[in-house]
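#struct-help
A.M.: can someone run this one for me? Single chain, 284 residues.
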Amino acid sequence: MKKIYLSILIVLLLACNNNYDSQTFVEKGKEFLIENDFDNAFKNFSTAIKKDPKNAEAYYYLADVYAFKEDYSSAINELNKVIELDSLFQFVYTKRGITYRKIGKLDLALADFSKEISLFPKEVEALNFRGYLYYRQGKYENALQDYNSSIVLDSTDFETYRDRSQVYEEMGEKKLALEDINKSISLKSDEEESYLFRAILYQHMGSEVSANNDYDSALKINPNYPPALFNRGILYHKLGKHKLSVVDLKRAYDNGIKDAKNFLKEYYNIDYPSPTGEKNHKLR
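D.P.: on it. Structure tokens below:
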């Protein structure tokens, strides 16, 4: 009887050790993930799964490794395993929805964000991601509802105000759009994208001086920010500041905005970059 009891005890202890070891590797993997050391993160999460194939958290973070490597199909497979093991694992549907969105499966992404919200109504990230998808689909009332709910839950997220600002602008509510983007910048004043959005809004409102100031602010934060260079270049053209326009448009092209090349050709008769390497072009 004592031998049987001792055998059971040993089995139980070994099981506890295996589970403990599995979670230890998960924690180590998370540390490597934070450090962007994806190879070691992969090894640790894989070892965690080998020691405990039912450790849902290991699959969850292994999906992150695949996503960072842009292997989205494998990431989705790992997230499916999480759901098979624990259908109430918080944020797993949001993470799978984000992954679906990256590969263009927007209907599946929307379904996942909605599933997350149905399970966890206070999941701000899911509300924001679904709101953005609704915005992209032109469902502005639905997007506005999600952003409103998100702000009730967390009134300190600058991105939510910035995203809601775009919804208001599409709805023709420019005053509300401006209030939201101002709030976004007041919460985080070092985001170049926020100044870009406000600059574009100012242009739509006919406030070109304010727009120019915001493009300047965006480029002060990031001197090579392509959309700010491109949009400021076009604004300079409109204001008759052609030399400044050409400088910005060339820099925009150099930083990846291919449309800048077309603008230079159409409005300034400049081939950039020049086939001969000539940089001194006369303005039209």
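A.M.: thanks! Residues 2-17, 277-284 have pLDDT under 50 and may be disordered.
D.P.: also worth noting: DSSP finds 15 helices and no strands in the chain.
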